[in-house]
Amino acid sequence: QVITGGHYDVDCRLEDPDGIVLYKEMKKQYDSFTFTASRNGTYKFCFSNEFSTFTHKTVYFDFQVGEDPPLFPSENRMESACVSIHEALKSVIDYQTHFRLREAQGRSRAEDLNTRVAYWSIGEAVILLVVSIGQVFLLKSFFSDKRTTTTRVAS
Amino acid sequence: GAGGTPGKGDGGAGLGVTGMEIGPSPFSGNYRTQLWDKQSESFLPSTPGLGMHVEVKDPDGKVVLSRQYGSEGRFTFTSHTPGEHQICLHSNSTRMALFAGGKLRVHLDIQVGEHTNNYPEIAAKDKLTELQLRARQLLDQVEQIQKEQNYQRYREERFRMTSESTNQRVLWWSIAQTIILILTGIWQMRHLKSFFEAKKLV
């Protein structure tokens, strides 16, 4: 998931050891991808921000591989109850991560907006003053020229 | 979590990690480096003699960890502030051919919070029974959940303060802008009126 930067999107690519592209998406804001690895080797993933002119991006990603190895070989009811609780708590932590990322992204957008509004307000105030003062002097200049023209015509 | 990242050129690799919880959070990173061998066109299995300098900065820019490790190692630190931490692995070796065409593959494994715990080790060290170990693991997880909830509470408080201050500023700005507008209008009228009176047009 993209947390900060520009339009909050990024390109992503995932390749297996043979170079076959398993996943490829352009300009996505968030996604999740599950697959079963068919063979051993180095899998490559790449996040690309080439399309962006000057914004840096912060991207959150995580990998979950396989299942948790059991802590103990024994298979009694207490152990399986503990495993269920463990998995449920993992799911709670996952949701918390999701909300933490959403909050970080929202905050980044808000700060971005704040900067833009600040610049715009200052610019607008400056333009307001310049135009108000400029109007008056422009108007005055109209009347100065017209008067001389009128005088010449009269004589 | 796990991930491998190839690095190029001078062997420096930077990584940003968002610190999660309020309250000290343990963090551990494992890394292993492999140097590209031009002759065999593959990565050597290990690079003895290559030194890596690890530097970690907390969200305030303060250096939390700055140490030299070998070509593979494990570094740990505890984060106390929520926010973006910067981890930089930098190779300062001049012996290794890390110039044009040189590549360095860095295997990096990062564990945060309760994932830093190695439960079989803890069981052996504290001599815990199966049930005690499971209980310890579940307690660790619940503690992490609580820390995260504290963090969200802190974030909500900051957000509320920011919202209220923004509201104030918007209010003052609007009043100020209206006043400037009115004053400018009055100035315009008076200036033009005196100008026209001087020109005997009014």
From TrEMBL, chain A:
Cell location: Endoplasmic reticulum membrane; Endoplasmic reticulum-Golgi intermediate compartment membrane; Golgi apparatus, cis-Golgi network membrane; Membrane
Recorded topology in the membrane: Single-pass type I membrane protein
UniProt-listed InterPro entries: Emp24-like, GOLD_dom, GOLD_dom_sf
Ranges in a coiled coil: none
One Gene Ontology cellular component annotation held by this UniProt entry: endoplasmic reticulum membrane
Residue ranges occupied by any GOLD domain in the UniProt entry: 1-65
Family annotation (Gene3D superfamilies): GOLD domain
Alphabetical keyword list: Endoplasmic reticulum, Membrane, Signal, Transmembrane, Transmembrane helix
Transmembrane residue ranges: 117-139
Pfam families in UniProt: EMP24_GP25L
Family to which this protein belongs: Belongs to the EMP24/GP25L family.
Protein's recorded name: TMED7 protein
Primary gene name: Tmed7_0
TrEMBL record, chain B:
GO cellular component, one term: endoplasmic reticulum membrane
UniProt keywords, alphabetically: Endoplasmic reticulum, Membrane, Signal, Transmembrane, Transmembrane helix
Protein localization: Endoplasmic reticulum membrane; Membrane
Stretches the record annotates as Disordered: 1-21
Membrane topology, record value: Single-pass type I membrane protein
Segments of skewed composition (Gly residues): 1-17
InterPro entries, alphabetized: Emp24-like (IPR015720), GOLD_dom (IPR009038)
Membrane-spanning segments: 170-189
Family annotation (PROSITE patterns): GOLD
Ranges where the GOLD domain occurs: 50-112
Keyword Nuclease found: no
Lineage top rank: taxon: Eukaryota
Predominant cellular place of this UniProt entry's protein: endoplasmic reticulum
SMART domains (UniProt xref): EMP24_GP25L (SM01190)
Family statement drawn from the similarity comment of this UniProt entry: Belongs to the EMP24/GP25L family.
Protein name: TMED4 protein
Species the sequence originates in: Onychorhynchus coronatus (Royal flycatcher)
Species classification: Eukaryota, Metazoa, Chordata, Craniata, Vertebrata
Originating gene: Tmed4
